[in-house]
Amino acid sequence: MLRFLNVIIFLAAFLLLLLVSVSLPITKSITYFTLTAGFDAGAISSGVSGGVSFGNWGWCTTPLVVEVFGIDRTEPGECSEAKIGWTIDQRLVDLLHLEGLQDAVNSGLTLALVLNPIACGITFLTLLFVLWFAWRQTRLSAIIGVCVGVVAAILTTIAFVIDIVVMTLVKKNVENVSSNFHVTYGQTTWMTLVAMILTWIGIILFCIAGFRGRRVRRKEETY
């Protein structure tokens, strides 16, 4: 029973990391953070307000509202091309007045963009070994599974720490530039946190299941 529970735990951790790894713009509802901006020029009754959300493979803008002499004009949102190592489009920088924030955002996300998919891949390998152990309780499957699982847990923990540090630094740097900028956290940080907790719990249960399986085999050999 314990080994099958472990399968569910690692499956859940893998699915969470997978969703993080295929976040925006592939999965538009899952983001790292959203940067909103609003600028007003009261003398001529003009301004612009809008936002941009960042994900593992790019960014998407919310509809941008441009006001000129009291007349609102809305530009539809758009998404960047899905790719790793993306940068903020210059037109978006000009429209939302993001000058000086490009380096803070782009460099800050680099580690998180790379590490989360790696942690997802190692967690999937751990899931395979857990399935192997659930199907056939062998000493080899237990040892390899625990070793790979520990690597997955460590990588997921590092990914979570990096997510927290990066998001905190980006929020601080962005909002220090101007009160017109505001950063809100997305879902990926908390999804990574849950995956990290599940992975460590899974490792503990894996060790317990392996120890119990070994004791059962010894009793069978004795009798």
Automatic annotation (TrEMBL):
It is found in: Membrane. The chain crosses the membrane at residues 111-135, 142-170, 190-211. Pfam families: SUR7. InterPro entries: pH-response_reg_palI/RIM9 (IPR051380), SUR7/Rim9-like_fungi (IPR009571). It is a multi-pass membrane protein. It comes from the Eukaryota. Keywords: Membrane, Transmembrane, Transmembrane helix. GO terms for cellular component: cell division site; growing cell tip; plasma membrane. This is Pali-domain-containing protein. It comes from Serendipita vermifera MAFF 305830. The lineage of its organism: Eukaryota, Fungi, Dikarya, Basidiomycota, Agaricomycotina.
